[in-house]
UniProtKB/TrEMBL annotation:
Domain of life where this protein originates: Bacteria
CDD domains: Glyco_tranf_GTA_type
Pfam families reported in the protein's UniProt record: Glycos_transf_2 (PF00535)
Annotated InterPro entries: Glyco_trans_2-like, Nucleotide-diphossugar_trans
Domain (Glycosyltransferase 2-like): residue spans on this chain: 44-162
Record keywords: Plasmid, Transferase
Gene Ontology MF, one: transferase activity
Name under which the protein is recorded: Glycosyltransferase family 2 protein
């Protein structure tokens, strides 16, 4: 691991309505050591999850901006009632998480121009106690670090098979990483320097921006311990499939954008997807040789072996790791079909 300032990565210690382009709010002073930290939350029809999110924030930091993407459930009013600045995005342009975060950051800077750090969080997440202090301390202690990322966990992994699968996706080792997810604390000056997120990306916008940040010499770190709790609330195979299609689209689009970059982000992932979900089955069909398909059960056994052959979860994970390639291939195909047609993909929703 590359050396950093003395900081234990494993230490786990712990308003008003605003229409786009307008501002009016009541400013509260001081949040102790977090006085240079602001928060941007984004969401769409999150209901009680948004309430839980904002409640987890407001006792720690008063500078909170919530950006709404066309909710019909009263989310803007709920955010206003909880003291956040509520920004309603103009619905004449496509909604994306990237666009929401950019607008939230812009609003935050307009109201508090002296802020140094921003914590982004999705509206279906709850920030964990002590995370803001840990993340800020890490960034202050390490001048080359642009982002402090932590572990996101599912709030109810036991409720459905799909919740458990998503919970597994969030796991990662602490240390320097190439990209991050949506819940992350970042340096505002660095974000402004690279122009923020790309508004038109429907997914993968965080890791795409991290490529541009790393090209300017910045580094991204994952700290140990919980950062946030997520409520994916997934109950069907169809939802899981659509979420995976969106992931495949992100792999293809972001790897294409940075195809000439030294880091070649997600290039190997796209190659892996195309091999397992396109090349292998088409080759078996073209050659009329079904014996090639034995590679699928062999791959499932291999992956189950890694996690423990006598654990039921190992076989479940291995099976879905194979299935997901076909959903991701659909996303890869969508991206390249749109590229050839000269159009952008609209957001792929799974809730």
């Amino acid at each position: 691991m590359t050396s950093i300032a003395k900081f234990d990565l494993h230490d786990s210690s712990p308003v008003a309505s605003l229409e786009e382009g307008k501002s009016s709010l009541e400013i509260r002073d001081g949040d102790g050591e977090l006085s240079d930290v602001g928060i941007v939350a984004i969401g769409r029809n999150e209901g009680q999850r948004l309430v839980d999110c904002l409640v987890s924030l407001k006792s720690r930091v008063s500078r909170i901006v919530y950006v709404d993407s066309g909710s019909k459930d009263g989310s803007v009013e709920r955010a206003r009632d909880l003291g956040a600045i509520a920004v309603a995005l103009d619905d004449s342009l496509p909604f994306t998480a990237a666009r929401g975060r950019n607008k939230g950051l812009e609003t935050l800077i307009e109201q508090w121009p002296d802020l140094k750090f921003v914590q982004f969080i999705d509206g279906d997440c709850q920030l964990q106690e002590g995370w803001l202090e840990r993340a800020r301390s890490f960034l202050v202690a390490n001048s080359t670090a642009v982002a402090a990322y932590g572990n996101r966990r599912e709030k109810f992994p036991e409720r459905t098979l799909y919740n458990a699968l998503v919970d597994r996706d969030w796991k990662g080792r602490p240390g320097e990483i190439y990209g991050c997810g949506g819940d992350v604390m970042m340096r505002i000056s660095a974000l402004r320097d690279v122009g923020g997120y790309r508004d038109w990306l429907i997914a993968g916008e965080e890791s795409e921006m991290c490529v541009r940040l790393r090209e300017k010499g910045w580094r991204i770190w994952r700290l140990d311990g919980e950062m946030s709790r997520h409520d994916v609330d997934m109950h069907s195979f169809k939802q899981w499939w659509r979420r995976s299609v969106r992931g495949g689209h992100a792999f293809a689009q972001v790897s294409y954008l940075h195809r000439k970059s030294a880091c070649a982000i997600w290039k190997k992932d796209v190659v892996r997807i195309v091999f397992w979900a396109c090349c292998l089955p088409l080759t078996a069909l073209a050659t009329m040789d079904p014996s090639l398909l034995i590679l699928y059960p062999l791959q499932i056994i291999r992956q189950a072996w890694r996690e423990g052959l006598f654990r039921r979860e190992s076989w479940r994970n291995a099976l879905f790791d194979s299935l997901i390639k076909f959903a991701e291939m659909q996303g890869v195909f969508k991206f390249y079909a749109n590229l050839l047609a000269g159009r952008l993909q609209t957001i792929i929703e799974y809730k």
